[in-house]
């Protein structure tokens, strides 16, 4: 399953290639509370069909109505990009359902050959980070390699946006836990690859939309060269597989590296990696183990939810202090249970 940005761009390109008039809408800036963050995308064709979201429905309804009544050329002022602001007044905020005080600024871009959506999609598929500059005066776009991401930048003459490869999850081990984790990841727009060289584990393990590899985990990770849009999680419960994967994963650019296991097993794993494979303490600090945030999970589905929540939190830059890890969460919970037991015995 593709992420939402890719779906929007691919749909807009497909509509355009089939002769339909299309507007690509980008949330450029917001002030106060806003339903969708800067960078969110929406595509609307001349029939009012949409893909993506910029406000949860209220502003979309206004744009659809205008496009159907006036046409794409009129809304975009003779085929040129236009900046549109919603929510400046209290009346607009009430009319369009924006939170009190919220203002959202959009760039409406008529899709054409100048948009270079095919080149942009191709670059993202090759796992390239791209900076896209849209000239508001003539609709020309420039694409160039980027070493950073971030929110859009809008000035008087141009809109600069950043695009990158689809977020990828590499799962070591085909199991029931892996199956639930992959389902969560797919629903969140991750590209998912499951690696397990054990034929008996792969034999009955199938899930639409994912890639299953029979390679040794270390070989696969070296081949894929994990980038900053890649998460790696070891779930095989076999140290020969998990440790091999983690050795290379911890030395890659992956934004998340984790492994399943009890607190004791996690400490033993760290000691093995430190002693036998010379993994530095700094690298081991990046290992999330036991993987997941503490939600009192018991079943494979709950454990998968816990792990996926942690991966998303790390991806979104949430500090660990705001997302309690499994180990510290269990300790705190045990302390609370101990106190409650002690008090009941008084």
Outline the structure in words.
With 346 residues, this protein is of the alpha/beta class. The protein folds into two domains: 4-163, no CATH class; 168-330, Rossmann fold, CATH 3.40.50. The chain contains 13 helices and 15 strands. It has helices spanning 4-17, 58-70, 72-75, 90-95, 117-125, 176-187, 199-202, 217-224, 239-249, 263-276, 281-284, 300-315, 326-344; strands spanning 22-31, 41-45, 50-52, 82-86, 103-110, 130-135, 141-145, 153-154, 158-163, 168-172, 191-195, 211-213, 230-234, 256-259, 287-288. The strands form three sheets. Strands 12-11-10-13-14-15 form a six-stranded parallel sheet, sandwiched between helices. A five-stranded antiparallel sheet has the order 3-2-1-5-4, sandwiched between helices. Strand 10 (168-172), helix 6 (176-187) and strand 11 form a beta-alpha-beta unit. Helix 8 runs parallel beside helix 9. It is elongated and about 65 Å long. It starts with a helix and ends with a helix. Mean pLDDT is 88; it is low at 336-346.
């Amino acid at each position: 399953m593709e992420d939402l940005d890719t779906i929007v761009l691919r749909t807009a390109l497909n509509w355009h290639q089939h002769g339909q008039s299309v507007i690509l809408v980008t949330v450029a800036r917001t002030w106060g509370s806003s339903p969708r963050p800067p960078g969110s995308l929406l595509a609307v064709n001349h029939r009012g069909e949409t893909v993506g979201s910029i406000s949860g429905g209220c502003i979309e309804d206004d744009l659809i109505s205008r496009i159907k009544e006036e046409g794409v050329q009129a809304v975009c002022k003779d085929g040129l990009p236009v900046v549109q602001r919603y929510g400046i007044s209290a009346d607009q905020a009430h009319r369009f359902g924006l939170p009190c005080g919220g203002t959202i600024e959009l760039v409406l871009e008529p899709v054409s050959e100048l948009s270079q959506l095919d080149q942009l999609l191709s670059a993202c598929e090759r796992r390239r980070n791209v900076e896209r500059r849209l000239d508001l005066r003539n609709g020309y776009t420039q694409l160039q390699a980027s070493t950073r991401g971030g929110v859009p930048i809008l000035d008087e003459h141009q809109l600069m946006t950043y695009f990158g490869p689809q977020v990828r999850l590499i799962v070591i081990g085909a199991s029931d836990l892996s199956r639930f984790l992959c389902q969560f990841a797919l629903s969140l727009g991750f590209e998912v690859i499951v690696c397990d060289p054990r034929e008996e584990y792969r034999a009955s393990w199938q899930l639409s939309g994912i890639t299953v590899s029979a390679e040794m985990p270390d070989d696969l990770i070296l081949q894929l060269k994990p980038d900053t849009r890649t998460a790696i999680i070891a779930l095989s419960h076999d140290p020969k597989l998990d440790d091999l994967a983690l050795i290379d994963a911890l030395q890659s650019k992956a934004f998340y590296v984790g492994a399943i296991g009890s607190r004791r097993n996690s400490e033993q794993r760290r000691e093995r990696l430190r002693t036998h494979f010379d993994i530095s303490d700094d690298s081991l600090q990046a290992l999330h183990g036991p993987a997941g945030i503490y939600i009192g999970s018991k079943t494979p589905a709950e454990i998968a939810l816990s792990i996926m929540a942690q991966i998303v939190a790390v991806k979104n830059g949430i500090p660990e202090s705001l997302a309690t890890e499994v180990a510290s969460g269990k300790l705190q919970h045990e302390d609370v249970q101990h106190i409650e037991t002690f008090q009941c015995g008084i």
